[in-house]
Design a protein that fits this description.
The structure holds 3 protein chains of 3 kinds. By secondary structure, chain A is an all-alpha fold. Helix content of chain A is about 55%, strand content about 0%. Chain A starts with 11 loop residues before the first helix and ends in a 5-residue tail after the last helix. Helices cover about 60% and strands about 5% of the residues of chain C. Classes of the chains: A mainly alpha, B mainly beta, C mainly alpha.
Chain lengths: ~200, ~260, ~230
């Protein structure tokens, strides 16, 4: 029995062996091109991984630049300063890892630039900005994790775990509830893009 | 407005907006003096089917009980010499003995001591036991109130009455003791119809039946003499008609505090 | 139309289960017989979403393991909040995080449907009554839960479940950072958090001796109460 119809869609046999059942849980490996009911998302692939990671890299650039500038301007004290230095180091490591994953040289000239204004100048603006950026990162990663192949799922989870630690830390520093909801909401690429623009740091 | 180098990412994001709408992947731009405009269009990922909400804690329980895992003395002070009661690990009925946990703890010489309520005379006594002598803590949300004057037993759940029954209590010569007690165990599937289909054991001891085998503990149970209920008819136990004890069984768990007035 | 047997296609048993629900369990004969008519099979496949969601056996195992871990954390933090004997900042953490974990229990039970298991019995052995020990234990559990969820994310069959696990995973990491901050430890020690194995989690749980058997307070025995 052939695996594919002439138009490229799966035959009923293949459909059944891949375990589609009603409109309940979606199992991996089910989604195919053409001839299928509308399903959210598309099949993970190495090619899509590269595009996802390239996108998440943009989110990391924003964070890394923020902490680097705060450290450079030197106006934070005490634990806030330690926070900026350590978190900055970790965000820069994320940038390096993602650049390597998308096979992109570390050419600094190719990185986007941002305008942080006073957000990197002192504690009052720095902390809320840090919370905002880390929340963007957590929801961006959570939104993309299900689009990745398994090895890259792990890579992304190893990073978003640290972003979530950053947001927990920053929120506690800001006297805000670090864990207001039992589950974090994922963001689509569109939602992340809007959130990044809403920071005012991106032009 | 002419885009500057500083607005590279902004321009790239705007381009991405168009690309997303067209659902076309964008390949990486060739190296140039401007920042990369690679803004791949990504599909929305499957939604998680998970929208959990925070769950508040249950209302404050009527009591907290713990099993006794090792025979121990309840002392008047943590680690102190004076013993208020000896607390065995098993009841005379062969069930795991339990105590009520009062929610205070203290460290003495590296050991954690906790304040408890245990069987005593004329009613429960309070003391301190080593935490290590107890098992896990279990909340109960019910409380049983027995009125010796009205001959009723009322079960309250989170303060609201959910059960009431007429009862038979001890005769004047063998009274049901007055005070604060708790349900320690439950027996069922036995033969004797004297006790009805099931029986709860309490921490209450009958004052006049101390030579009764098995310690003379007061039970709450059914009966084969429903004609005697309500009344002062027993050797100390709290009896109710069988239909009522079966109803009570559905609502009341071991550890439930029992007030006899 | 089709010449397939149900057995050949129904790897996870999901179709068979769906069929049971539709037909009241006459699957036995059906399962064994050779052929499935197109209409009947289509009816099974296109059945509306059932009350109990369908998970593969592997996903059920993963969710059940998570559920037990959530039961433990929920119970521990609930007890700490109930007793109120730890310090105010830790108590506040326990209150907020306990509400999250109780929410996780409810959500994972809903994901499992009929495959949900009951909570084990726990004895927290004073850990909920001592601030220092509670804090150390909470740090260990939150760090380890976040690590375990990474491993499970790479193992889970369903991508919807992957999304669900991811949304819980980042919250556990928030918990971990927050309790570390309270304890005076660096909230994010590394740039990349490593996954951990189920075996390591089992070892941690065993080392605490928190899981106990339920006490026997009910017996078949002739009463000897005073009467």
């Amino acid at each position: 029995m052939s695996d594919l119809h002439a138009d490229g869609s799966l035959t009923r046999a293949q459909l059944l062996t891949r375990g589609v059942v009603g409109s309940g849980a979606l199992t991996a490996g089910v989604i195919v091109a053409g001839g299928m009911p509308k399903l959210a998302g598309s099949q993970p692939s190495r090619e899509q991984d590269a595009r996802v990671l390239e996108w998440l890299l943009q989110v990391e650039y924003l964070q890394a630049a923020f902490y680097s500038e705060a450290e450079r301007r030197g106006r934070l004290r005490g634990e806030l300063r330690e926070f900026a230095v350590l978190v900055g180091e970790q965000e820069r490591a994320h940038v390096a890892a993602l650049e390597k994953a998308v096979r992109r040289g570390g050419n600094a000239a190719r990185r986007p630039e941002f305008d942080f204004g006073d957000a990197t100048a002192g504690a009052d603006e720095f902390v809320p900005a840090a919370v905002e950026l880390e929340e963007i990162a957590v929801s961006a990663f959570n939104g993309q994790v299900p689009n990745l192949t398994r090895p890259r799922v792990l890579t992304a989870m190893k990073i978003v775990s640290v972003e979530a630690r950053h947001v927990g830390w920053a929120r506690d520093l800001a006297d805000r509830n670090p864990a207001p909801r039992p589950a974090d909401r994922p963001a689509t690429q569109e939602q992340t893009r809007e959130a990044m623009e809403a920071t005012g740091f991106v032009e | 407005m002419q885009p500057t180098r500083r607005s590279g990412l902004g321009a790239a994001l705007a381009v991405a907006g168009l690309l997303i709408a067209a659902a076309v992947a964008v390949v990486l731009a060739a190296p140039s003096s401007r920042p990369s405009t690679a803004e791949p269009a990504l599909p929305p990922s499957p939604s998680s089917a998970l929208e959990p909400e925070n769950v508040p804690l249950d209302p404050r329980p009527a009591a907290l009980w713990a099993p006794v895992v090792a025979r121990s003395a309840a002392r008047s002070r943590p680690g102190g010499p004076a013993v208020v009661a000896h607390v065995p690990a098993r009841t005379p009925e062969g069930t795991t003995n339990i105590v009520l946990v009062l929610g205070q703890s203290e460290r003495r010489a590296g050991r954690l001591w906790v304040r408890v309520r245990v069987p005593g005379s004329p009613d429960d006594v309070r003391g301190w036991m080593p935490r290590a002598a107890l098992g896990g803590y279990n909340p109960v949300h019910t409380r049983l109130v027995v009125s010796r004057t009205r001959l009723t037993a009322t079960l309250l759940r989170d303060g609201r009455p959910v059960f009431r029954a007429r009862v038979g209590i001890g005769t004047p010569a063998t009274p049901t003791p007055r005070g604060d007690f708790y349900v320690r165990n439950q027996l069922h599937k036995y033969r004797s119809p004297f006790y009805g289909p099931l029986a709860f054991g309490t921490s209450a001891r009958s004052a006049t039946a101390s030579d009764w085998p098995a310690g003379g503990f007061v039970g709450i149970h059914g009966t084969n003499r429903p004609d005697l209920i309500p009344g002062q008819v027993s050797a100390g136990c709290i009896r109710m008609v069988n239909r009522d004890i079966v109803r009570l069984d559905r609502l009341m768990r071991v550890g439930t505090p029992v007030s006899v007035r | 139309m089709s010449d397939l047997t149900l057995e050949a296609v129904d790897r996870s048993g999901a179709i068979a289960e769906a069929f049971d629900q539709l037909t009241g369990g006459t699957r036995g004969d059906f399962f064994r017989k050779a052929l499935i008519g197109g209409a009947a099979l289509t009816a099974v496949l296109e059945a509306p979403a059932l009350a109990a969601p369908h998970n593969t056996a592997k996903d059920v195992a993963i969710l059940r393991f998570d559920l037990n871990l959530e039961y433990l954390q929920a119970a521990m933090y609930s007890e700490a909040e109930r007793l109120g004997e730890i310090r105010p900042r830790t108590l506040e953490w326990s209150r907020v995080v306990g509400a999250n974990e109780r929410g996780h229990v409810k959500a994972i039970r809903a994901l499992l449907g009929r495959d949900a298991t009951k909570s084990p019995s726990f004895n927290f052995r004073g850990v909920t009554e001592d601030d220092r020990v509670f804090t150390e234990t909470a740090v260990a559990f939150e760090d380890l839960t976040a690590a375990l969820l990474k491993t499970q994310a790479t193992q889970v069959d369903s991508r919807r479940l992957l999304a669900a696990l991811a949304s819980l995973h980042s919250v556990e990491a928030r918990h971990a950072a927050w309790i570390r901050h309270i304890a005076g430890i660096v909230p994010s020690a590394d740039a990349f958090d490593e996954p951990t194995s189920k075996a390591k989690v089992v070892r941690l749980v065993e080392s605490t001796n928190f899981v106990t058997s339920a006490p026997r307070t009910k017996r078949r025995r002739e009463p000897r109460y005073t009467g």
